[in-house]
Specification:
Elements lengths: L1 E2 L4 H11 L11 E5 L7 H16 L6 E5 L10 E3 L8 E3 L4 E2 L2 E2 L7 E2 L5 E2 L11 E6 L5 E7 L2 E8 L6 E6 L2 E6 L3 H11 L8
Parallel strand pairs: 1-2, 2-3
Antiparallel strand pairs: 4-5, 6-7, 8-9, 10-11, 11-12, 13-14
Helix pairs in contact: 1-2
Length: about 200
């Protein structure tokens, strides 16, 4: 597979197409995007996948797919970040970008005693956790977590240094920093008795 732009969106689209290809070494896919990548609609990617699927099904090489962007296909209705993965979102009026995407988005996750990242799929009660985020003048980020199921809140600062621990997000291994005992104990009390719905 060859693609012109180093983009996560490109990689995702091509990985979906790759699932359809029985022998990738015998196939070539050339995707050319004319215009701004962020203006491409999901329908265009589905169309490209459908073309690839038909070609593979007929025993042919994958064709060259040219996607031309000539019109706006949507607009931004709202900006949201999820500072803690699977907890409630924070709505923004404006957002900054970094190499990982939106600043403050999914920079933290809740990890169980087995070092596994837990998500709403596993524990739906995570959706009730509200997150308040504040950037301080000294360059730190202060977080307050709350929940309608708990009368207490917990405050902590996002760590920027400390012992690095390896945690697991599905099959991926991620290096992480511990946010401290206070938030760990608060989450343990809050989620005690919550039965996981998925492994």
């Amino acid at each position: 597979f060859r693609f012109r732009l180093p983009s996560a969106e490109f990689a995702l689209a091509l990985s979906e197409i790759a699932k359809l290809v029985p022998t990738p070494s015998d196939c070539a896919l050339f995707v050319e995007v004319v215009g701004c990548l962020h203006r491409l609609s999901r329908d265009l990617w589905h169309e490209a996948c459908a073309v690839a699927h038909r070609a593979v099904g007929d025993g042919n090489r994958l064709p060259s797919v040219h996607i031309h962007v000539g019109q706006i296909v949507g607009h931004v209705d709202g900006l949201f970040v999820y500072p803690v993965k699977s907890a409630e979102a924070i709505k923004l009026k404006q957002a900054s970008m970094c190499s990982f995407g939106l600043v403050d988005d999914r920079q933290m996750a809740i990890v169980d005693s087995k070092k596994l990242v837990v998500t709403q799929r596993m524990i739906p009660a995570l959706a009730d956790i509200s997150v308040h985020l504040k950037h301080t003048d000294i360059g730190t980020t202060a977080i307050t977590l709350s929940s309608p199921k708990c009368s207490e809140t917990v405050d902590f600062c996002v760590p920027t240094k400390g012992p690095i621990q390896k945690v697991f997000l599905y099959k991926a291994v991620i290096e992480a920093l511990d946010c401290g005992d206070d938030v760990s104990e608060w989450l343990t009390r809050l989620l005690k008795g919550e039965a996981p719905t998925h492994a």
